[in-house]
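TASK: fixed-backbone design
INPUT:
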């Protein structure tokens, strides 16, 4: 991510990378791209991801549309623009509605359990990235480590599907070449 940002002279954060990774995995796993409305599960072809923004009054969740089909650079641009507008209080209600999945990044803690937004079936909580000792091939090394927690509504998503989502997401984050075309 850092290398790509330097090379392309475009700032891309971990949040942008996680948003794109989630969208690609969600495309593979339609059960994640659902909402519960009046006891009925609705599936969507387009992946619209809400990215939580903290304001003094509480969280607000602007929605980035069709994330799977836009570039990482475009995700960064849209997220930055919507965050600024959220902080200024100028987002329209339509820009905060219709998300099928949410990402909440809370970098001040290592990990947390995110609470689902009404109607949505899944939310990913992202803790801060910290350098920690890890064992690789029998050797201790210092690496950047981040905790991810997925909360799902079991009325719409089976636990095995949630586990597979986390497995695929983890694989993509550890080998992110498909995210940086």
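OUTPUT:
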């Amino acid at each position: 991510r850092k290398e790509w940002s330097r090379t392309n002279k475009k700032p891309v954060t971990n949040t942008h990378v996680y948003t794109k990774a989630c969208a690609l995995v969600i495309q593979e796993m339609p059960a994640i791209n659902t909402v519960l409305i009046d006891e009925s599960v609705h599936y969507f072809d387009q992946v619209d991801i809400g990215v939580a923004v903290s304001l003094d009054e509480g969280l607000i969740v602007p929605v980035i549309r069709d994330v799977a089909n836009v570039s990482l650079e475009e995700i960064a641009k849209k997220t930055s623009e919507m965050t600024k507008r959220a902080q200024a209080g100028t987002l329209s209600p339509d820009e905060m509605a219709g998300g099928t999945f949410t990402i909440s990044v809370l970098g001040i803690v290592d990990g947390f359990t995110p609470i689902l937004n009404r109607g949505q079936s899944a939310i990913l909580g992202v803790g801060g990235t910290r350098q920690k000792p890890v064992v690789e091939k029998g050797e201790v090394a210092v690496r950047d480590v981040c905790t991810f927690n997925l909360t799902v509504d079991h009325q719409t998503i089976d636990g095995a599907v949630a586990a597979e989502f986390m497995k695929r997401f983890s694989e993509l984050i550890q080998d992110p070449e498909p995210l940086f075309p």
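COMMENT: Helices lie at 2-8, 14-28, 72-88, 159-174.
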